[in-house]
C-alpha cells in the first residue's frame, strides 16, 4: 500500500514538473528570440537556441531610458494605488449586498448585474471623465475609470461574504455593541483574505496591463505608462515597415533597426517586473488563502 502511494506521488510530481516546463517554454522562447540576431531570425526562424546573440532590440527600446523609467514609475504608482482603492471599493460594495437585511438588496444586485450586459457607451463615458471630472492628462485618468474593474468581482466577493462568513459571528459582534464598520474591518476582512488576495491579484494584473485608458486620456509623453509606451513603439515600428517600400529614408532607418526581435523585447519589458516581483509576493498570496481556512 505504501509502495503504491509512493508510485502515485511520483507520477503526480513528474506530471506537474512536465506541465511546469511546458508552461515555461513560451516565455523562454520569447526571451530567446528577443536576444537573437535579426539576420538569424530571418534566415532560420524562431529558435530556443539562438545561433547568434544580439541585444540590439533592447538597445533600441532603451535608447531613451529616462522615458522608460518615467513610464515604469507611472505604471507602478497607478497599479499600487488603483489596486488598493479598487479592492476597497469592491469590498465595500459587496459586503452590504451580502447582508439579508439590506433594503432593496435584490434591486441593487440586479442593477450591478445589468452593467455586465449593457454599458452607457464610449461617448458619454469619455465625456463624464473628461468634462465632468477633468481627468484629462492626469495620473487619475489611469486609476479612477477602472476603480470598479468588474461587476463580476463584486458578485464573486458578495457570494464569498454570504457563504463563508458565519452569521452567528456577526450577530455575536452586534450583541456586544460592535458597529457595522468595526464588524467589517475586524471580522469580515480577516476572514475574507482568500477572496481579497485573489481579486487583488486580478486587479493588479488589470492595472499593470492597462494601456487603453492611457491612450484615451493622456496626451503628455511624461504621463505614458509602460504598456502604452510599448504599444506606441510597436505601432511606430509597424508604420516604418509599411513605409519602407515607398520611402528611401524610412527604408534606410528600417535596415538599421531590429524588427522581429523588438516585438519580443516589448513583451519582456512589459511583463518582466511582474515575473520578478511575483516570487516575493507569492508567500503573502498563499498566506491569504490558507489563513481563511477553517481551523479546529
TrEMBL record:
UniProt keywords, alphabetically: Cell membrane, Membrane, Transmembrane, Transmembrane helix, Transport
Entries under PANTHER family matching the protein: ABC TRANSPORTER PERMEASE PROTEIN MG189-RELATED-RELATED, POLYGALACTURONAN_RHAMNOGALACTURONAN TRANSPORT SYSTEM PERMEASE PROTEIN YTCP
Membrane-traversing stretches: 12-35, 71-95, 107-127, 139-156, 187-208, 262-281
Homology family: Belongs to the binding-protein-dependent transport system permease family.
Protein name from the UniProt record: Sugar ABC transporter permease
InterPro entries: MetI-like (IPR000515), MetI-like_sf (IPR035906)
GO terms for cellular component: plasma membrane
Amino acid at each position: 500500500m505504501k509502495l503504491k502511494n509512493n508510485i502515485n506521488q511520483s507520477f503526480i510530481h513528474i506530471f506537474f514538473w512536465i506541465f511546469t516546463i511546458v508552461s515555461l517554454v513560451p516565455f523562454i522562447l520569447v526571451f530567446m528570440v528577443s536576444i537573437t540576431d535579426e539576420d538569424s531570425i530571418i534566415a532560420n526562424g524562431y529558435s530556443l537556441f539562438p545561433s547568434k546573440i544580439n541585444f540590439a532590440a533592447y538597445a533600441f527600446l532603451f535608447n531613451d531610458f529616462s522615458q522608460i523609467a518615467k513610464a515604469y514609475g507611472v505604471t507602478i504608482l497607478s497599479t499600487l494605488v488603483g489596486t488598493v482603492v479598487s479592492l476597497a471599493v469592491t469590498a465595500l460594495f459587496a459586503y452590504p449586498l451580502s447582508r439579508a437585511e439590506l433594503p432593496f438588496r435584490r434591486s441593487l444586485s440586479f442593477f450591478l448585474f445589468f452593467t455586465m450586459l449593457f454599458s452607457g457607451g464610449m461617448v458619454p463615458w469619455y465625456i463624464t471623465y473628461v468634462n465632468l471630472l477633468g481627468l484629462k492628462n492626469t495620473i487619475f485618468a489611469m486609476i479612477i475609470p477602472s476603480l470598479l474593474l468588474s461587476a463580476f468581482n463584486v458578485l464573486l466577493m458578495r457570494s464569498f461574504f454570504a457563504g463563508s462568513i458565519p452569521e452567528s459571528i456577526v450577530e455575536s459582534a452586534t450583541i456586544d455593541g460592535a458597529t457595522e464598520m468595526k464588524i467589517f474591518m475586524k471580522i469580515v476582512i480577516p476572514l475574507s483574505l482568500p477572496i481579497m488576495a485573489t481579486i487583488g491579484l486580478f486587479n493588479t494584473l488589470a492595472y499593470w496591463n492597462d494601456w487603453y485608458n492611457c491612450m484615451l486620456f493622456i496626451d503628455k509623453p511624461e504621463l505614458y505608462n509602460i504598456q502604452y509606451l510599448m504599444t506606441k513603439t510597436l505601432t511606430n515600428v509597424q508604420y516604418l515597415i509599411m513605409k519602407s517600400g515607398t520611402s528611401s529614408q524610412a527604408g534606410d532607418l528600417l535596415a538599421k533597426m531590429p524588427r522581429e526581435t523588438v516585438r519580443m523585447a516589448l513583451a519582456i519589458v512589459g511583463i518582466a517586473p511582474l515575473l520578478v516581483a511575483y516570487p516575493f509576493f507569492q508567500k503573502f498570496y498563499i498566506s491569504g488563502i490558507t489563513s481563511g481556512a477553517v481551523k479546529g
